[in-house]
Specification:
Layout: E1 14-15, H1 16-23, E2 26-29, E3 34-35, E4 37-39, E5 49-52, H2 65-70, E6 75-79, H3 83-93, E7 100-104, H4 107-120, E8 125-130, H5 135-147, E9 155-157, H6 167-172, E10 181-185, H7 193-201, E11 205-208, H8 216-219, H9 222-229, E12 240-245, H10 251-256, E13 260-265, E14 273-278, E15 284-288, E16 291-295, H11 300-305
Parallel strand pairs: 4-5, 5-6, 6-7, 8-10, 8-11, 9-10, 11-12, 12-13
Antiparallel strand pairs: 1-3, 2-7, 14-15, 15-16
Helix pairs in contact: 4-7
Length: 306
C-alpha cells in the first residue's frame, strides 16, 4: 500500500473539504485530505490524487474506485446516486480513516468547476486553439515560438490532444505557479461542449484554424460546426483577440461573434511575411520582418499552421 505522506515536490491543488464547497458537493470522511493531482483513470492514480469516477460508454468509473485507492488516491469524486458503490469500495480498501468521499450530482460538472477555480487562482495569459484540423500542430508551433521569447518554464502547454470536456480540465490542473502563458487546445465532438471549455479556460486569445467537415455527422452541417466553434468567444468582454484564417469560408460569420479585436492570418494577411521557400521534406524557409526562419515541418498545411 502506498505511503501517502505529502512529498516535498507535491503542490496541493485543493483540500477535499474546500473542493466540496467550491463545487457544491457533500463531503464524507477526512476533510483536510490534500489533493495534489486529479485523474479519471484509476490506473493513473498516485499518492494524494483525487479520482473522479465518470460514467462512459464502455465503463463506469465507480467500479474502479477501489483500484484508484490502492494506487494512492485519497479523495474520490463520485456521483450522489452511486454513493453506495463508492462507500463499499472505500470500506473494502481498509483505509476509511484516510479517504474523503465527495458526492456531486454530476462528477463531470464538478471536475470542470474545480478546473475553472484552479485556473482562476493563477495569473496566466491564456491562448486557446480550436478548429476542424491542425489544432495540435498549431498549438505546438505557438509554444515553440513563444519559448524563444520567454523562459520555457513560464509556458504551460496542454499535453497531447487533451482538449475535451474531460481532457481540458485535466490539462488545466497541470498549471504551475511559474507558468505565465498558457497554450491549450480546445476540441469538440458534441453540441454544447465548447460552452463548457470556454467557461473553464476563458481564453485571452482564441485561434480558430479553420471550419472544416470533421464531425459534420455529429453536428449536421458546417454551419452548425461554425456556430459551435464560435462559442470559444463566449467569455470575451472586449479586451480579447481572435485569430482567424484569411481564407476560411466562415471568417465573416466568426468575426461577427467576437466582442474584441479580430486579426486574420495566412500567406496574404500575416504582417511582415516575405519570401517563402519550399524545401521539400526539410520543411520551409520563411522570411519574416527581416528574419530568416527555418520551419522543419513539410507540407503546405503545416505552413498554414505556422
Amino acid at each position: 500500500m502506498e505511503n501517502n505522506s505529502l512529498a516535498s515536490d507535491q503542490q496541493v491543488l485543493f483540500y477535499a473539504g474546500e473542493l466540496a464547497g467550491i463545487i457544491g458537493a457533500t463531503c464524507k470522511g477526512k476533510l483536510d485530505t490534500p489533493i495534489c493531482s486529479v485523474v479519471t483513470d484509476s490506473r493513473l492514480a498516485e499518492p494524494n490524487s483525487m479520482f473522479v469516477a465518470l460514467k462512459g460508454e464502455r465503463t463506469d468509473g465507480h467500479h474502479h474506485i477501489l483500484e484508484a485507492i490502492q494506487n494512492g488516491a485519497r479523495a474520490i469524486l463520485a456521483e450522489q446516486e452511486e454513493k453506495d458503490i463508492a462507500i463499499a469500495s472505500i470500506r473494502n480498501s481498509g483505509l476509511v480513516a484516510e479517504i474523503c468521499l465527495i458526492l456531486a450530482d454530476s462528477p463531470l460538472s464538478g471536475l470542470q468547476y474545480a478546473a475553472r477555480e484552479y485556473r482562476r487562482r493563477h495569473n496566466l495569459f491564456r491562448i486557446g486553439v480550436t478548429g476542424s484540423s491542425g489544432k495540435t500542430t498549431t498549438k505546438e508551433c505557438i509554444a515553440s515560438m513563444l519559448s524563444a521569447c520567454f523562459p520555457e518554464e513560464s509556458i504551460a502547454v496542454s499535453p497531447g490532444n487533451l482538449n475535451s470536456d474531460i481532457g481540458l480540465a485535466l490539462a488545466i490542473f497541470g498549471i504551475k505557479p511559474q507558468h505565465k502563458i498558457g497554450i491549450f487546445e480546445m476540441g469538440i465532438n458534441r453540441k454544447g461542449e465548447m460552452d463548457e471549455l470556454a467557461k473553464m479556460y476563458e481564453p485571452d486569445i482564441a485561434v480558430i484554424t479553420n471550419i472544416g467537415s470533421a464531425h459534420v455527422g455529429i453536428f449536421g452541417s458546417r454551419d452548425e460546426i461554425a456556430r459551435e466553434k464560435s462559442k470559444i468567444f463566449s467569455y470575451f468582454n472586449g479586451q480579447q483577440k481572435a485569430l482567424l484564417w484569411e481564407d476560411d469560408d466562415y471568417k465573416v460569420y466568426l468575426s461577427s461573434k467576437v466582442k474584441g479585436t479580430v486579426h486574420y492570418f495566412g500567406l496574404r494577411s500575416t504582417e511582415g511575411l516575405g519570401r517563402i521557400e519550399n524545401k521539400g521534406l526539410d520543411g520551409w524557409r520563411i522570411e519574416w520582418k527581416g528574419l530568416t526562419l527555418d520551419f522543419a515541418l513539410p507540407g503546405k498545411h503545416n505552413l498554414l499552421n505556422a
